[in-house]
Here is the input.
Amino acid sequence: MNTIKISASILSANFAELGNQIKETETAGCDWLHIDVMDGVFVPNISMGPFIVKTCKKITTLPLDVHLMISHPENHIDAFIEAGASTLSIHVENNPNVLRAIQYIQSKNVRAGLVLNPGTPASAIESLLPFVDQVLVMTVNPGFSGQVFIPEMLSKISSVYNMIKNGAHPADLQVDGGINSETLPKVLKAGANIIVAATAIYGHPQGIQAGLNAMRETIALNKNRDIIAAISE
Ligand code: DX5
Ligand code: ZN
Here is the structure.
């Protein structure tokens, strides 16, 4: 079983205090930092680019988990790797040469992830599973933090979990979107092991440390969970 990790999405951080917020995230014992890159074309929002990744790299030693929500991600892989990405995840949608991009990322000694939008079935990545370091199942429509978890995605998480379990190649299973104290036990039960959260951490009324503590407590309670083979809401 892969270890459970929390990846804090800075999309909901206070950017006027970004340096301090990232340091606080690290001190609070977070595992990874998740950086959401949006181009206003692939998703209806524009966010951060390689410059922010480079800035994060100067501030923290946390691994930088970069989620590319952009058209033609292959044109920008080098820039994000040079900026310091530890993992680069690209969407499978509208990407006929996705395996070439995955292999290129790995040739640079960076972890490569494949991302599934809510409308994309688990089967879309089945033949690519032997090649990837992680699969990210989106549990909201990509583009914004603070959205409501889509419960129908639980069965897809289970399907991907089973594909990974039954295959020869271990990959991490990440979830992203609408994770809170209510939805976290469900995604753990479905087999997710890398948990992305923005609002639950940066929007916690008692601050970053409290948000991470709450997630850690939920994870501890569900650690010895039985993963349900075919889960549905
Ligand atoms: C959405 C992003 C997420 C987002 C999650 O497109 O990929 O990483 O920041 O935000 P929450 O945890 O608030 O749903
Ligand atoms: Zn993300």
Summary: The chain has one domain: 5-232. The longest strand covers residues 32-38.
